[in-house]
Amino acid sequence: MNVRVIYQAASICLSYPDDAVLGSATLIAAALREEAPQAAASFSPLLEWWATTPASLVRTTYVDTFDMSKRHALYLSYWTDGDTRRRGPVLADLKRRYREAGLTLADTGELPDYVPLVLEFARHHPRDGAALLQEYRASMELIRLALAERGSPYAGVVAAVCDTLPGRSPADRQQAMALAAAGPPTETVGLEASDPRLLPLHPVGSR
Question: What are phi and psi of 73, to 5 degrees?
Fold first, then answer.
C-alpha cells in the first residue's frame, strides 16, 4: 500500500472542488488502482458522485458540509481544543514542525491543521505525517463518523486515511472520543451546545 498516493489523493479530494480538483478525478482513480488498490474502493463513492453530479452542486454541497457546519470541520485541533486560547500554541507548533521539515506554507489563508494541508505534509514526509495524523487520530475518526452519519461520500476518503494508521478504527463516537488524551475544552466560544467535543471523555465501558 502506497500511503503517499493515499495521502495525496485524500488531500485533493478533501479540498474545495474547483475545476482543477474535479478534473483530477480520473488521475486519482488510476493512481489508486495501481498504487493503493485496497484504498480505491473507499474513494469510489466520492469519485462516482463527482462524475454524476453537476459541478455547481458538488461545490454547494462541499460548502454546506465543511464550511457552514462545525460538525464536519476539517481542522484537527478544533476537535481537541475548540475555539479556545490554547489552540493558538497548537497551531504555532504545527507551523514549526512544517518549517523544520523544510516546508513553507503557501499564503492560502488556511490554518496549519487544515486536513488537506496536513495530508500534503504527510505525502512529502510519510513518517512524520503519519505520526501527526496518529496524534490527531481522535479528530480524524470523529470527522469520519460525522461524515458517515450524514451519508456523505467524503466519509470514505477520511476512512481511507484512518486505515493507514495502526490499530482499528473506533466503531462509534464514544470510542473515538475515548482516543483523546485530554478532556473537552473549558471554553466554549463558538461551539454549539450539541457539539460532541463538549461531552466528557470516558474510557469505553466506564459508564
Answer: -55, 130
C-alpha dist (Å) from residue 201 to 139, 166, 198: 13, 21, 9
pTM: 0.78
- Rounded Cα–Cα distance for residues 33 and 90 (Å): 36
Distances (CA, A) of 96 to 6, 16, 103: 25, 25, 10
pLDDT digits (tens, 9 = 90+) for 57-96: 999 999 999 988 788 889 988 877 766 667 788 888 888 8
Cα–Cα distance for residue pair 60/113, rounded to 1 Å = 23
Rounded CA separation 153/147 (Å): 8
Q: How far apart are the C-alpha atoms of 176 and 172, rounded to whole Å?
A: 6
Label residues 7-18 b or e (16+ Cβ within 10 Å = b). bbbbbbbbbebe
The DSSP call for residue 200 is P
For 146-189, give the DSSP string: HHHHHT-TTHHHHHHHHTTSSSPPPSSHHHHHHT-SS---S--T
- Close Cβ partners of 154 (under 8 Å, ≥ 6 residues apart): 13, 14, 46, 65, 72, 147
Residue 75's beta-bridge partner residues? 114
Top-level CATH class of 3-195?
mainly alpha
Contact (CB, 8 A) for 91 and 111: yes
What's the half-sphere exposure (Cβ side, CA atoms, 13 Å) at 79? 30
